[in-house]
Amino acid sequence: xxxxxxxxxxxxxxxxxxxxxxxxxxxxxxxxxxxxxxxxxxxxxxxxxxxxxxxxxxxxxxxxxxxxxxxxxxxxxxxxxxxxxxxxxxxxxxxxxxxxxxxxxxxxxxxxxxxxxxxx
Amino acid sequence: xxxxxxxxxxxxxxxxxxxxxxxxxxxxxxxxxxxxxxxxxxxxxxxxxxxxxxxxxxxxxxxxxxxxxxxxxxxxxxxxxxxxxxxxxxxxxxxxxxxxxxxxxxxxxxxxxxxxxxxxxxxxxxxxxxxxxxxxxxxxxxxxx
Lengths: 120, 145
Fold this sequence. Notes:
The complex is a heterodimer. By secondary structure, chain A is mainly α. In chain A, 74% of the residues lie in helices and 0% in strands.
């Protein structure tokens, strides 16, 4: 088996970034479908109130779906924001700091959102 | 050969930050950069989005707190209600722009329809839809109808 790390790592060739590219599109489809599902529930029926709004998120399937979408958003935003840093920020130290900030920001946000979802 | 060496060859440099204003982008280019900007806006405003989700869905009391911020503001009116509405409008635009341009991306990826003309027309449709819907929803948000 050929060594693909350290000084012998192959850094050129096909399929670099394909996994992230594909994941970004799959998570995008998930979030787009979720938007339609949520919007449908908001628009159909009585005018929006607290009870209707909270009722939407009281179903177990909606909670599970929302959880999946939060995780999808986390990955989607990570790929997108990392692309921005890679394109515009060249100094390695600054880029690393921004990437760490991005991860902390996203994981923190996802944790908060899941916490809200959990106690409903 | 000697002739070639004398004629000045065109030089293409990277666009400097100061050139951005004078650099004319085609609609597809505008959609492309707006996809980045709207994505970054959604990323940075994520805590506000989760705050809205938290207060609107947790209890009836917090729901009132959520709605009153957009009318009465917060910190005894130190931050006025219209300011929150403006942030919400920014979010609405960013979401619509990112959503519609994202669907455009997915269609292009799925169908391999990537001609110059198609890129132009779908970009114009994307911009018209996102700006149009933002104007309509913005008017609703600020109580114009």
